[in-house]
């Protein structure tokens, strides 16, 4: 078993290094122009684009949801021989689902999932996961045309501030409890906790930038409290131990589903929600993570 894991890890590293080399062959400025957005270079040669729904005023249990908490759509391109693999998660209203899906399918992209992440959201939001392989510019053009049929805001063109504003949370204690360093984005403190073993889709390595890591987001709600949401990435045997740990920590499970179609190992994504003392919730999240095969620092 250990030998198999070691072989998978070596293969994953080799794929990542190959991706970095292939990324140098892609003119990302052309992809930026086709998508009308500026991408960010990520590890493994991945180019990632943010698609936040800053136009939506969504509340859950009276909490106004910041885009970085649960409305941050994205698409990412990973270089491969003969083109790229694309994955993404587009945030839509109910009325936007049909036209956006139709346009994506017309452009020969795949729809890999469609579901909710939040309960009691007002207005309701849905999450359409997309995938595909091929020419990065053509796929970017298709994604842009599809997004034009929604009210997803265009990129503002404004530079991000050099330093992220601090959030009203005990971030050092949260880091210690969760065992990883978080980062502040758009008023939300975010954690990315990778799984221990490599994940592949159609034979391609799926790095964290392509949505393969556990995501945990904390949005301050005052007096040491935080609204939390995100998703755990788990195998079938981990689903129910994880759920039990979350419920023991008074954290609500809001969705259980897949995001991909041909991944190895087979994975499930467990979404959650709570609004309570931030440190208490962090301990509940840590207990849940311990029920899964996470990478140890």
Keyphrases for this structure?
disordered N terminus; globular; alpha+beta; 2 domains; six-stranded antiparallel β-sheet; 297 residues; 8 helices
Please provide a written account of the structure.
This protein is an alpha+beta fold and 297 residues long. It is built from 8 helices and 17 strands. The strands form 4 sheets. It has a 6-stranded antiparallel sheet with strand order 1-2-5-6-8-7. Strands 9-10-13-14-17-15 form a 6-stranded antiparallel sheet. It has a 3-stranded antiparallel sheet with strand order 12-11-16. 40% of the residues are buried. Residues 1-21 and 157-162 have low confidence and may be disordered.
Count every beta strand, where a strand is a DSSP E run of 2 or more residues.
17
Fraction in beta strands: 25-35%
> Which regions contain 5 or more consecutive residues with pLDDT less than 50?
1-21, 157-162
Average of pLDDT:
91
What sort of overall outline do the alpha carbons produce when their principal axes are compared? globular
Distance between the termini: 21 Å
Question: What series of H and E elements makes up the topology?
Answer: HHEEEEHEEHEEHHEEEEEEHEEEH
Q: Kindly report the spatial arrangement of strands forming the biggest sheet.
A: 1-2-5-6-8-7
Profile the largest sheet: 6 strands, antiparallel
Structural class category: alpha+beta
């Amino acid at each position: 078993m250990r030998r198999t894991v070691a072989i998978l890890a070596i293969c994953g590293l080799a794929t990542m290094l190959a991706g970095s080399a292939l990324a140098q062959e892609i003119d990302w400025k052309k992809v930026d122009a086709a998508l009308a957005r500026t991408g960010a270079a990520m590890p493994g040669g991945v180019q990632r684009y943010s698609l936040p729904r800053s136009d939506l005023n969504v509340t859950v249990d009276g909490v106004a949801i910041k885009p970085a908490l649960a409305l941050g759509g994205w698409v990412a391109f990973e270089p491969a021989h003969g083109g790229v693999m694309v994955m993404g998660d587009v945030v839509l209203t109910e009325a936007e689902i049909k036209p956006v899906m139709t346009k994506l399918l017309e452009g020969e992209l795949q729809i890999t999932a469609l579901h909710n992440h939040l309960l009691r959201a007002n207005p309701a939001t849905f999450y359409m996961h997309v995938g595909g392989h091929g020419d990065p510019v053509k796929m970017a053009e298709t994604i842009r045309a599809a997004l034009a049929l929604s009210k997803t805001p265009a990129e503002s063109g404004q530079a991000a501030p050099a330093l992220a504003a601090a959030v009203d949370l005990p971030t050092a204690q949260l880091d210690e409890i969760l065992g990883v360093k978080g980062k502040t984005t758009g008023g939300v403190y975010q954690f990315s906790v990778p799984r221990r073993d490599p994940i592949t889709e159609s034979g391609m390595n799926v790095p964290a930038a392509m949505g393969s890591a556990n995501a945990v987001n904390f949005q301050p709600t005052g007096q040491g409290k935080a609204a939390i949401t995100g998703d755990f990435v788990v195998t079938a045997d981990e689903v129910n131990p994880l759920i039990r740990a979350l419920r023991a920590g008074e954290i609500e499970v809001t969705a259980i589903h897949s995001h991909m179609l041909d991944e190895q190992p087979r994975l499930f994504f467990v979404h959650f929600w709570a609004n309570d003392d931030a440190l208490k919730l962090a301990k509940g999240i840590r207990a849940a993570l311990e029920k899964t095969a996470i990478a140890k620092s």
